[in-house]
C-alpha cells in the first residue's frame, strides 16, 4: 500500500513549521534585534517535553483557582467547506492564516499574544458553509472587538484570534470541527 498523507499530517506539518518560525521570532524579541542564527531542527529528546511542562508550570500564576477562561487564549481557523479544497491546500491556507494572524497580533501588540504563546498556541479548525457565512463571522467578530485575518486575495480561511477563548467561542462556538 502506498504511503499517503491525510489532512491531519499536513496540518501538523504546517503548524510545526509555523511553531519553528514563532520560536525564532521570539528569540529575536528576547535578544533585542541582535542577529540570531536561523533555527536548526534537532532530534527531540525524551526529557524535553517534561522540561517544557515544568517551565510552563513555573510561568503560571500561583492562584490556579482563578477563572481560567479569562487567561485561556486560542486561535480558531474557519475553513470554507464549499470550495472543495484538497487536504494539502487546506493545510497550506490554514498555515497562511495562522501566520497572518500572528503577524497582526505582533504589529498591534495584542495583550493576548503572550498568553497564547505560553500555553502552546492552541489552534482549532472549524468549517463554514460558504463565503457569506465567513463574512458574517468576520463582521460579528469585529463588532465584538475581536482580531480577524483573511489572507490577501483569497477568502478561503478566516482566523479568529489569538484571543480569549470565551470571546472566540461566542462567535464560532456553533460551527462544526473540520
UniProtKB/TrEMBL annotation:
Catalytic activity of the protein: an N-acyl-L-alpha-aminoacyl-tRNA + H2O = an N-acyl-L-amino acid + a tRNA + H(+)
Region of interest called Disordered, as start-end residue ranges on this chain: 47-67
Record Pfam families: PTH2
InterPro entries reported for this sequence: Pep_tRNA_hydro_II_dom_sf, PTH2
Enzyme class: hydrolase
Superkingdom assignment: Eukaryota
Chain segments annotated as coiled-coil in the UniProt record: none
GO cellular component: cytosol
Gene Ontology molecular function: any one: peptidyl-tRNA hydrolase activity
Transmembrane feature ranges: 6-24
Keywords: Hydrolase, Membrane, Transmembrane, Transmembrane helix
The enzyme's E.C. designation: 3.1.1.29
Family named by the database record: Belongs to the PTH2 family.
UniProt name for this protein: peptidyl-tRNA hydrolase
Organism whose genome encodes this protein: Vitrella brassicaformis (strain CCMP3155)
